[in-house]
Amino acid sequence: MSHASSDRDLPIDDGAGQDERVATWESGRWCADLATQWARWLSHTAYIPMALGSLESELRELIELILEGLRRPERIETTGHSVGTRLVSLHATGEDSLTRSLELLCRTLLPGPSNESARRVLTLLASVASGYAEADRGSALEQQETLKRALLWSKLDAERKLRVSEDRFREVFNTTPIGIGLCDLDGTFREVNPALERTLGYSATELVSTAVTELFDPGEAEIVSTNYVELLQGLRSGLRERRNLVRADGTRAWTYIAVSVLRDTDGEAYRLVLMVEDLRELNDLQEQLYFQTLHDPITGLANRQHFRTRLEGALASFAPDERLTLYQLRLDGFGLINHGLGYEIGDSIVQSVANRLSGLVRDEDGLVARIGGTEFAVLLRQCPGTPGIAEFAELINTELDEPIYINGNGLAPTASIGVVQRSVGDAEPTDMLWAAGVALRSAEKAGKRQWAVFDPHRAPVELTEAKLAAIMPGALELGEFEVGYRPLVSLADGEIVAVEARLAWQPEGHERLEHDACLRLAERSGITLALRDWTLRTAWRQLSEWHAAGFDHQLVVGLSPNQSRDPDLVSRVRRVVEEESPDPSRLLLCMSMTALMGTGGEAVDNVATLADMGVRTAAHEFRAAPAELRFLRKFPTRAVLLAPDLVRLAEEDETFESPELRALGGMVPLVRSCGIPLAVPEVRTGGQARLWREQGCDIGSGPFCSEVLSASEMTELLRENAPASDAS
After folding, report:
1. Computed from CA positions of residues 667, 673, 678, 684, in that sequence, does the dihedral angle turn out positive or negative?
2. DSSP string, 158-189
3. What is the C-alpha to C-alpha distance for residues 649 and 651, in angstroms, rounded to an integer?
4. Rounded Cα gap, residues 267 and 259, in angstroms
5. Which backbone phi and psi does 325 adopt, to 5 degrees?
6. Are the C-beta atoms of residues 39 and 56 closer than 8 Å to each other?
7. Which residues of 479-498 are buried (b: 16+ CB within 10 A; e: fewer)?
8. Looking at residue 116, what is its pLDDT?
């Protein structure tokens, strides 16, 4: 720093040239240049958070403050202190900021100083330095205090959050249903929660002195130890397994365990966390669901799926020469109990039957199952003391003959039984179940409380019919069925009085099926109602064409028992007859005598409603039973058709001299006395037709007059014959 400046450069009253120096310092140009240079110097020594122009403005104010202090000596120290404070507030606190500022001010303000002027300037600069240092120290202390307060608040906040976190952890630790244990690296428990105590049956004191490995099943301890080593070595991220743990009472607790390693900031393991979920309730639920899947909910017996599995197991485990007998039985007429007494009573009877069947095989190597609503299966291994087929079938019905008393009523259901017996080496589960079902159907055809053994000679026929019944719905959808027509003629003069619709189906690779076979298979396949509706629509549409051509004949359509008692029969018929123009009275529906005599009364209700629509009805499958004759006196029928099996009796004895035919011949006048015409189907020869006419029958159909014809062939036959009179 130069001290060669003269006294005239200072703005003080110390001699010649003073006015000139004052004028120079007070000029705006001089102050601006000094502020610019000072700002440039400071910006190189410290980071000052303001633009250079703003800093120059701030420094210019300091320069003016310095000049004011130099003019008034009594304020030099105060001015210097203020300047130092302002520099600190401007953040001019770099290592060289003060030095460079003093150097600049001295060089500028003392170009050639006198002793007095030098003293004043130096005093000022010392004050600047003092103010600067004090302000800087205060700033540092303030920053330290601020930092100290921030650190304190941060520490307090961290401690508060830690306490909250610990409280939450402790709440979860103590209340969670999952057992938790904190362990040392050697597996020794340090702390356990109440859930782990409950799961294992130990107290916390007992567990704290126990190692985790001591709780595992001895047979699994080695595997678990290996997994622990891998976990600690970092070869596994965690351990999650289902394991048996040994409880305090020595029992096994099926659990799901999860083990994790806690590591410090350096990644070193220092603690293990063991979590144990008690799976006993889940296991019990799974076992319950498994049992329900394989057992009937009402009786507790094996269901069809479980029975089949057991049958497969028996065939796989027994010697090939061992013999197994499968009894499949169905309770007879059980619908009467459900409908008459209620389904709760029905369930009680099913339970009683299940208990009695189970009692029959209690001393045998056998199994009882409920494989359907009222259908049961009994599988027996034929040991030396095991009853034979006939004996055991009789035992079943004898056991069921004992009344079951419910609400004071004694009920004794009977059962039809199908039986199949096979050597283990020759048997297949599916084949045995199918064969037993075939035998059961044979027993039911024979009547109630009957049993039948599977006939292997019947097997091909059953297989064929089962296949045809299975494909029947698709055949109906694809239009493979046909409706043929057969004339019903007067046995007196041969005149056509009505046309009967007859079904036919030609399955691929099978012989043609006629009307009765189609209806029988339709009952098995479940399309009997859909097939009835299609037949009605097709035949009624054809009748409309015949009426348009001038052939005023009646259409006869025969219905099976299920078709006759269907609650939707009336609505289906109404929909059909409203589609075409013929008078509804030209339709004659032949209702099944079996359905009309049934206890439900649905078929009789259908007849009454159809009569209100103008549709006429008749009764077919008539077998001349006294109850049927009594029914006909009240039933508003237009005709009665004999059952085909009665007609076939006359084929064997055309003299009507056999007792059964004489009885049949004596029935005809009784029917006619009710004012009802009697029709005879399936008449094959003219001689048979003459014989039935002599017995008093009015109408006949069958090969004696015509086979079943197509629609076009029937049209030609109608043209060849004189107009027919009304069958009524």
Report:
1. positive
2. HHHHHHHHHHHHHHHHHH-SSEEEEE-TTSBE
3. 5
4. 17
5. -120, 130
6. yes
7. eebbbbbbbbbbbeeeebbb
8. 63
Q: How many CB atoms lie within 10 A of CB 247?
A: 14
Confidence of residue 723 (pLDDT cuts 50, 70, 90): low
Residue 56's pLDDT is 87
pLDDT at 533 (0 to 100): 94
Q: Which of 234, 236, 192 is nearest to 215 (CA)?
A: 192
**94-139 pLDDT, tens digit each:** 767 777 787 777 777 765 555 566 656 666 765 677 677 667 767 7
Q: Read off the tokens for 56.
A: 């120059």
Query: From CA 103, how far away is CA 253, in angstroms rounded?
Result: 88
Return the ∠ at Cα 53 (arms to 51 and 55), rounded to 5°.
Answer: 70
Q: How many CB atoms lie within 10 A of CB 77?
A: 17
The per-residue pLDDT of the chain, averaged, comes to 82
Cα separation, 189 vs 563, in Å, equals 77
Q: Hunting for tokens 């009977």 — which residue is that?
A: 414
Q: How far apart are CA 505 and CA 479, in angstroms?
A: 10
Q: Which two tokens stand for residue 291?
A: 């049992």
Q: Are 502 and 486 in contact (CB under 8 A)?
A: yes
Strands 269-278 and 323-331: unpaired
| Cα dist from 198 to 201, 204, 251, 260, whole Å | 5, 10, 13, 22
User: Tens digit of pLDDT for each residue in 592-624?
Assistant: 888 888 866 888 899 999 998 899 999 988 888
- Residues 262, 271: contact at Cβ < 8 Å? yes
What is the 8-class DSSP label of residue 233?
T
- Residue 334: CB atoms within 10 A of its CB come to 19
Q: CA 677, 678, 683, 686 torsion: positive or negative?
A: negative
**Backbone region of residue 187 per phi and psi (left: phi > 0; alpha: psi in -120 to 50; beta: other values):** left
Cα separation of 62 and 69, whole Å? 10
Within 361-482, residue ranges assigned H as helices are 389-401, 429-445, 459-477
Residue with tokens 């428990």: 189
- CA–CA separation, 103 vs 96, rounded Å? 10
Give me the pLDDT at residue 501, please: 95
Chain centre distance of CA 437: 32
- Decide if 491 contacts 685 (C-beta within 8 A): no
